[in-house]
# Entry
Amino acid sequence: MTEFPSASPPTVLLVEDDRRLAEMVTALLVEEGYRVEVAGGGQAGLHLGLTRHYGVLIIDRGLPVLEGLDCCGSCDPTESARPRWF
# Structure
């Protein structure tokens, strides 16, 4: 399990439209001690990213309707230091 310098681990926002893949990634992250919230598409991910704070974003680049890179481009620019994985 990963050790975190603060009392609580960062919350991860996982934006992935493939349910099985989202379940596998979530299981691995939870096993490492992270809290995970999943959005099933770009629009839902953008909404969550703008209304809540996440320590890490993991976004599928090939989402239908609103692609992963477009999600990031629409996120709050004051959060630019937050890690984003594609």
Summary: The first strand starts at residue 11 and ends at 15. The longest helix spans residues 19-31.
